[in-house]
Amino acid sequence: MKRLSQCLVKLGVAAANRSQAVKEAGRLLVDSGCVTPRYVDAVSQNYGEEVCMVIAPWLAVVHLRDPELVKKNGVGVLTLKKPVRFGFEASESVRLVVALAAQDTAEHLSQIDEIGTLLSCPGQMERLCRAENEEQVRKILDWR
Hints:
By secondary structure, the protein is α/β, with parallel strands linked by helices. The chain has helices spanning about 1-5, 20-30, 35-45, 105-120, 125-130, 135-140, and strands at about 10-15, 50-55, 60-65, 75-85, 95-100. A hairpin with a 1-residue loop joins β2 and β3.
């Protein structure tokens, strides 16, 4: 899982709501030079399910395909100190937020594929949510 095991990681983030969680995930990509600061603004203003999806119990994926805002490919993984309700119908509380930055469709689909592969392994999400340091996160993401 090359892309995910090389991701940016931030653990135990305190977020009171979905807006704060999404902004923190976006800041990971900004701080690493993957996206411009406008990416965080755009994601925050365009909350719909096309930008932020709860794709599994505890997991939300944040992504915005805009070539003007993405400088390089990257993935950010953020664990939340306390679960946050994202407010979409039938969604559970989110404990893990994955932010994606892709310069093209092929990369974007590869990133999504790796997340799908991760979800297919029982217990991976729980292990990620309980990880105590970045090394543990990367080891979990590089499981195959």
